[in-house]
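Field log, afternoon session.

UNIT: design team B
ACTIVITY: writing a sequence onto a fixed backbone
BACKBONE:
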């Protein structure tokens, strides 16, 4: 099995889980939560702001933004899969 077929198989398996699963897990959970943590840590170490207050604020902003990130990533994966199917 060549690399393109293997990648196509992985993309199909990922897309089979569904759009909302992908958006919530990869967008909100992974990207949104990790970004919130990183931003809160940066504000804590660089600006000296209280960590828990920054984390609380970041947890409102970035998981909501993660919905957009997850949707954008979903569209990109569909385009990549369509490109691989065309080859």
């Amino acid at each position: 099995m060549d690399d393109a077929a293997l990648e196509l198989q992985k993309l199909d398996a990922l897309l089979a889980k569904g759009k909302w699963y992908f958006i919530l897990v990869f967008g909100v959970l992974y990207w949104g939560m990790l970004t919130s943590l990183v931003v809160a840590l940066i504000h804590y170490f660089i600006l000296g702001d209280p960590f828990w207050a920054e984390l609380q604020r970041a947890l409102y902003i970035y998981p909501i933004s993660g919905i957009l990130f997850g949707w954008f990533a979903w569209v990109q994966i569909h385009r990549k899969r369509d490109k691989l199917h065309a080859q």
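LOG NOTE: The chain has a mean pLDDT of 93.
NEXT ACTIVITY: expression trials, pending approval
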